[in-house]
Write a structure and sequence with these properties.
Strand order of the largest sheet: 9-8-7-10-11-13-12
Largest sheet: 7 strands, mixed
Number of strands: 13
Order of helices and strands: HEEEEEEHEHEHHEHEHEHEEHHHH
Distance between the termini: 49 Å
């Protein structure tokens, strides 16, 4: 009789024959990995919610799509939050005074709010997420993402509701608006939050002169697949999101990072206006403003991080760095898009509107 643990070779063979988690990443492309544990599985009014353990550690899955994983969630959340907040700070001359107010659409894992709250200048965070069950599951099974400590922070107002409806009805203005929402998939709840009509309204909710808008923008492969050049087959929305924001804001800055647990590079798009001549800039002037941010000296970013971001250690073994991923050198890499990706973006002229939405895979 064989007892587990007695023979490492047999145990290794058994592990190979175990359960696997598979996820469709793109047409014809699937990522598979050993499913080490199924920690929780439930359904809400809006979606199926799973927390599993894989190669990438604890992982939140909704409707069969990875939302964030222990291995690299900090890469996604630091990239979404800190460039926007630091840009907002640089748009004003009052040293250390802003940004003070931040809106988060979505963000149910609470990690986006966790990163925002690292900024002592921020006095008020309003987070609106549709699915209360996702938040409760993350509090219990993914506490390192932020958990109850973030949800109960006195600077934080957590609202269960529709982010689109909230923003369309609020009279409050914000220094930074962060959209950490579901991808624009057909029949999904987030489609309207990627349209030209919504972006035009969001612009009116930003304070001047330091208002910054940023959104996650889906797959943004550094070497796009062949079908990315075929507008009938292209399932990425990185280009259309950039283009759509460009019809509303003076300056639109796409950037990417690699998220291994997503199986691809991931895109973000930041947008802001000129302080003096909003809506009246030439294309050359817009490019100069954009390059002043994308090509900012690495030391400038590192100094801003040191001065403006509080380090919150999860354990004594953590380093003394305020952030795990984002710094001056990473900043330059994030905004330096590859030549093949720039070629695809240049050829993509699609705009996302209420009447003509575009859906991701």
């Amino acid at each position: 009789m064989s007892i587990e643990g007695e023979c490492p070779a047999i145990d290794a063979q058994r592990a190979k024959a175990g359960f696997w988690y598979s996820e469709d990443v793109a047409p014809g492309l699937k990522c598979s990995m050993v499913l080490k544990d199924m920690l929780h599985s439930t359904s809400s009014e809006y979606q199926k919610i799973d927390v599993i353990e894989t190669y990438f550690g604890r992982t939140l899955i909704t409707d069969g799509k990875t939302q964030s994983a222990q291995f690299d969630e900090y890469v996604y959340h630091e990239s979404l939050v800190h460039p926007a907040l630091l840009k907002s700070a640089l748009l004003v001359k009052e040293n250390g005074a802003k940004p003070r107010s931040v809106f988060i659409g979505g963000g149910g894992e609470l990690a986006t709010a966790r990163e925002v709250l690292r900024h002592p200048s921020v006095e008020r965070v309003v987070m609106v997420d549709l699915d209360e069950k996702v938040i409760e599951v993350c509090k219990e099974y993914l506490p390192a993402w932020g958990g109850s400590a973030v949800a109960s922070n006195p600077r934080m107002e957590l609202i269960i509701g529709d982010a689109f409806a909230y923003l369309m009805n609020t009279t409050e203005k914000f220094d930074v608006v962060i959209m950490d929402i579901s991808d624009p998939i057909e029949a999904g709840p987030g489609v309207m939050l990627y349209t030209q009509e919504f972006y035009a309204h969001a612009k009116t909710l930003l304070n001047s002169p330091n208002g910054v808008f940023v959104t996650q923008a889906g797959v943004a492969d550094s070497v796009p697949p062949e079908h990315a050049m075929d507008r009938e087959q292209d399932t990425a929305c990185f280009g259309p999101i950039k283009n759509t924001l460009g019809t509303v804001f003076d300056c639109v800055v796409p950037y990417t990072v690699n998220i291994p647990s997503f199986g691809s590079d991931w895109g973000f798009v930041m947008a802001f206006n000129s302080q003096e001549r909003s809506g009246k800039l030439t294309s050359e002037e817009k490019q100069q403003l954009i390059m002043a941010w994308t090509d900012v000296p690495t030391g400038t970013i590192d100094n801003l991080i040191e001065r403006r971001i509080t380090h919150i250690k999860a354990s004594d073994s953590e380093s003394d760095d305020a952030l795990k991923f984002y710094d001056g050198i990473s900043h330059r890499r994030m905004f330096a898009l590859t030549k093949p990706l720039r070629k695809v973006l240049k050829a993509d002229e699609r705009i996302m509107t209420k009447a003509n939405p575009i859906f991701m895979y």
